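Supplementary notes for students who missed Thursday's class. We covered one full example, reproduced here. Read the sequence, then the structure, then the short commentary at the end.
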Amino acid sequence: YSYSILEAPFPVTNYFSTLKVKSINSETSEVIWSGSFLPLDSATDSEVEALFFQIYSDGLEALKAHFS
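Structure (token representation):
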């Protein structure tokens, strides 16, 4: 699943993200969530990376809780 965010409260532009689900076995899957973006002048690369790392971590934990 891939998506773009055209307008958001994040200090980035050109945001594009992909979620991939890979079957490990009949009971386990691996979810990979990645994204690319350009930070706006108001933010550094490391600040925006930390922001999306937290968003992705929280989202993946929510998926895990829902499907466990």
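Commentary. Strands lie at 2-5, 12-25, 28-39. The CA atoms of residues 41 and 57 lie 25 Å apart. If anything here is unclear, bring it to office hours.
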